[in-house]
Amino acid sequence: MGRTGRWWAVRPGEWGFAVAGLVPALLGGAYAWAALYVGVLLSLTVVGLPVVAAALTGARALGRPHRWLAGRLLGAQVPDPGPVVRAPGAVGALRAALTDVVAWRTLGYLLLRLPLGLLGAALVLLPIGCLWLLGFPLWLRLLEDGPHPAGAFDLLGPLLGLAVLAAVPPAVRLLAGAERRLARHLLGPARAQQRVRDLEAARHTLLSTGSDRLRRLERDLHDGTQARLVAVAITLSLADDVLADPHPDPARLRALVDRARHQTDDTIAELRVLTRGLRPTGLDGGLAEALPALAAGCAVPVTLRLDLPRRPDEAVEQTLWYCAAELLTNVTRHSAARSAELTLEPVAVGTAGAVDTAGGRRELIRLTVRDDGRGGAAPDPGAAADAAAGSGLAGLAERLAAVDGRLRVDSPPGGPTTVTAELPARL
């Protein structure tokens, strides 16, 4: 659900969330404050920890309707965090509830949703007050007897009403944007948990893709290359029979040798086709040699900006090469661009986003392909066939996720298109 371009164009779902979200915000906020109050009071007693654990379990449950409402009306698709992992026994269940990051984040969400929900309801009711301001001179004369000479407020009242009325739509949009960010950051799985899920899903997809590719390769080798090798063996056997003759026919022997040579050349050519893509041969000299060769084969002129002080891991190199190859192919086929630019550079250690699983900082590599084409490119998660084949933007996102990378696409209609891939230099 994309955002509309005009500041005043508020979508119906944003108005609906401001109205329908009030009751859940009140109930959730009251629950969160009550849970905190009771938890603090009982924290020094024996029953304090079980009460806090029960309150956290309830907060996690209350997050479900809020998550559904944000997805339904605001388009904030928040993944389900899944059930909490509990150790066996009462002590294990208590420890799991108290250390559940999702529950604590949901409790924080319920606390923050209360003022935001009240603000949303106020914004919805504000136009009624604006109507009163717009008709202030008329209401004043209707409600009070006697003459009322025109005053400054007869003009200022309607102007103030118009100003407030004009400010309501952008305020509703800003509030809806804050609600989306809040739901995505606090109602979904924890960052480490989501990262593990993404890696597992991406690696499962790539493993399935690899298995399918191996089965196709096995079938092609069996049905094609093996048959060609059998033909070569038969031809050589016929040549051997000619040589075994006391009076061999040189012409027939030469014909059989020529046939065997042609069959061998055809087999080698077929093997090259079958093994193409298993590992790019141009990577033997690294990306500094492979990318210029790749850009030279692009039908659109490509400007290269390469800044890679040292070679990354082999798997990272292959991923970068495949990304560059796919993106340049997209430029040629779909963009109608006149020129493109490919940039490969390291992201400095300590830059935002360069965080590893241990919480430390590590270097990322950024590959950017920009073209001046017509734009409109976007990853299509529904393109299952392309993703399964490892092609297209959806396939690139899967390939990058498998090495803990990410893909960003900025391609407004009319262009330009900028696609950025970031992944760690070391796995």
Concise summary:
The protein has 13 helices and five strands. The protein has 427 residues and is α+β, with helices and mostly antiparallel strands.
Question: What can you see in these coordinates?
Answer:
The protein has 427 residues and is an alpha+beta fold. The chain folds into three domains: 12-186, no CATH class; 192-275; 282-424, Histidine kinase-like ATPase, C-terminal domain (Heat Shock Protein 90, 2-Layer Sandwich). The chain contains 13 helices and five strands. The protein has helices at residues 12-20, 22-41, 48-74, 90-98, 101-134, 136-143, 152-186, 191-244, 250-275, 287-296, 314-335, 384-389, 392-401, and strands spanning 302-306, 340-347, 364-371, 406-410, 417-424. The longest helix has 54 residues, at 191-244. Residues 1-5, 351-360 and 380-391 have low confidence and may be disordered.
